[in-house]
Structure formats: structure tokens, C-alpha cells
Amino acid sequence: MKVLVLGSGGREHALCWAISKSPLCEKLYCIPGNAGIKEVAECKNIKISNFSYIKKFIKEKKINFVVVGPEEPLVNGIVDKLNKLKIKTFGPNKKASILESSKSFTKDFCKRNNIPTANYKKFKNFNNAINYIQNIKYPTVIKASGLAGGKGVFIVKNKFEAKNTLRNIMVKKEFGKSGKEVVIEDYLIGEEISCLALVDGKNYIPLLLSQDHKKIYENDKGPNTGGMGAYCPLPYLKQNIQNKINKKIIEPTIKAMNKEKRSFNGILYAGLMLVKNKIYLIEYNVRFGDPECQPLIFLLKSDLLKILINCVNKKIKKTKIKWEKEYAVSVVMV
Fold first, then answer.
1. Would you say residue 4 has pLDDT above 80?
2. Domain coordinates of the chain in residue numbers?
3. Which of 1, 189, 181, 150 is closest to 87 using CA atoms?
4. What contacts 59, CB < 8 A, 6 or more positions away?
5. CB-side exposure of 77: number of CA atoms within 13 Å?
6. Nearest 5 degrees, angle CA 307-CA 191-CA 151?
7. How many CB atoms lie within 10 A of CB 154?
8. Of 2.40.30.10, 3.40.50.2300, 3.40.50.300, 3.30.470.20, which CATH number belongs to 189-331?
9. DSSP helix/strand/coil, 63
């Protein structure tokens, strides 16, 4: 089987490293890849946004299976386009990817489907948002609704910080169209958990629970990033917490997405907060987390490529996943 991975980060390096070890993988390519990925896959320097060139490459190399790493091509509908070409592709389609592309949609989705999340208000008008922040509790959380590479979430301590943040997002347009709408939500204090689950439209398998660290400096100082490191599994969690996450978050999400004709196939990444033994959804992502992917893949004993193929073919229920009984950590150095 000839496999193509799309992306250029540490996440894609981890995916390529694992896929390259599969006996099912005859040849592995990565677009655009990076220097590390070149050790395990043949890289082609094509822009990930240039679908016509990717399409040409896929036909030329007779690719059988595609794995999409980052969120942007998923949100832009690359899975839909590849499915039209009859190319098996791991990742959700455009309709399902809205869980990540619109925080506003996700908050409303949680509300109408009784999925626990922080209380919130959403705004498209700057003045209305400014009026709202005058009489709320601080700290609070302000989010650009659209994609912002993990940098569109701000914990603000007072009205002054809130006003500046709203101005930067909505007036100065620091995140472009992604900041046309903002979500202002309650600040939750607890333990952050990343739960990634393989979903085939109906059935699912949760992966090991992990935790990422977003602040750029030591001791959680500085602004949020896409992630400065992650580790798994989480030794401090009680055994029943995964069952609680499944029942309160993962299962109702899959059921509701089907009900709303947005069937989800791929990695459903639930960013969670554990507050006094209660689980709250902070955000959804629709792909492997970076840096969570790296320690997860390092502990995976099973054939990753076989797992991903089973997921695309709606056979995840029959899939068994084995893990190393160890701990793994990834650290981002910048």
C-alpha cells in the first residue's frame, strides 16, 4: 500500500514514524514534510493548500491511502475532495470539521445536546462585547471563534485586559476572519485533560488520556501556544474517569453529530477540564493533537496504519489496540 501523510510538524513526524513500521506500508510519502520526516518517508515540497498539485501527485504516485495531519485542510474540505477521487482518507469531512472551525458552533452544539461546558456568550459586535465585560466575574476566557493555530484563546484578569483583547481580535483583526465572532466564557479551575478517540461514524475507541501544556514559559507563564509539550498516561486520574468522559462527552457527541447529519469519521479530540470530579468540554479538535500525538504514538504497540484503515472502513469496533505499560513525554524547544 502507498500512503501519503499531509503536514509538516512533530505530529506528522510521529505519524510517519509509526506508519513506516507497518507491514502494510509499501511506500510512504509526506507533503510537505520536514527534515526529520525525510528519515522515514519521501517528502515532496508542495503547499498543503495547493489541492490541484496534491491531486496530481496522488495520481502520479498511485496513492492508496491519505492521512491528514493539520486542521486547516480538513476544515477546507480536503477529505470530501479526495473521497470524490475514490481515495481512502483518514479524517473528518468539511461538515464534521465545524467542531473545530467554529467555537461558536461548538458551544451551541454542547448546549442543545446537554454536553457539559462552561457558561458562555458569543458576540459579532464589538460594542456589545464591551458592554458585556463590564459586569462579569474575572478571570474570564475570550476566544476567537475561528481557527487561530492554538493562539486565539486568552485568559484575562480584568476589564482592561478584556477590552484590549477584544479590540485586538475584533477591531485590529489579529486573527483575520477567525476573529469575526468571539466567545466569552467562564474561567474553569481544574485539571486539563486531552481525550483523543478514534471514531468511525458510530463506534469509537478512546486512546490513552494525556495532558498538554500551552503556556510558552516555565511555570505556566506567558501566552498560550499550540502546545509546548505533553505526556501520557495521567497517573493521578481515577480509573472511572474514562467511563465518565465516554458517557458525558464522547458518546453524546457522536450521537448528536449523526442526528445533525454531520457524521464524524477520524480523530475526535476533546479538550476537557476536570473540576471537582466533574467533566467539562473546553473545545473540540478534529485531528491528532500536536504535541499529544507524539507521546501517544510512542506508547502504541499496535499497527497504526491498520488502525487508521479500520477506522475509515467503519471497522473500529473490531479493532484491538495495545499499549506499552510505560510513560512518554514530548517537549517542544523553541
1. yes
2. 2-90, 119-186, 189-331
3. 1
4. none
5. 4
6. 75
7. 21
8. 3.30.470.20
9. coil
* Predicted model pTM: 0.95
Beta-bridge partners for 268:
197
- Do the bridges between strand 27-32 and strand 42-43 make them parallel or antiparallel, or are there none, so unpaired? parallel
Calpha distance 206→196 (Å, rounded): 6
- The cell numbers describing 199, all together, are 471514531
Please name the residues in contact with 50: beta carbons below 8 A apart, sequence gap of 6 or more: none
Nearest CA to 194 among 85, 285, 84? Answer: 285
Q: How far apart are CA 334 and CA 298, in angstroms?
A: 22
User: pLDDT for 131-177, tens place per residue?
Assistant: 999 999 999 999 999 999 888 999 999 999 999 999 999 999 999 99
Q: Are 147 and 72 in contact (CB under 8 A)?
A: yes
pLDDT attached to residue 224: 72
Q: List beta partners, residue 141.
A: 155, 185
Q: In this structure, are residues 262 and 80 in contact, taking their beta carbons and an 8 Å threshold?
A: no
DSSP 229: E
Residue 8 one-letter amino acid: S
Q: Which of 146, 145, 287, 165 is nearest to 227 (CA)?
A: 287
Q: What is the pLDDT of residue 222?
A: 80
Half-sphere exposure of 197 (CA within 13 A, CB side): 28
Q: How confident is the model at residue 219, as a pLDDT?
A: 77
Query: Helix 304-312 and helix 10-19: axis angle, to 10°?
Result: 100
C-alpha cell at 24: 502494510
Q: Cα(179)–Cα(177) distance, rounded to whole angstroms?
A: 5
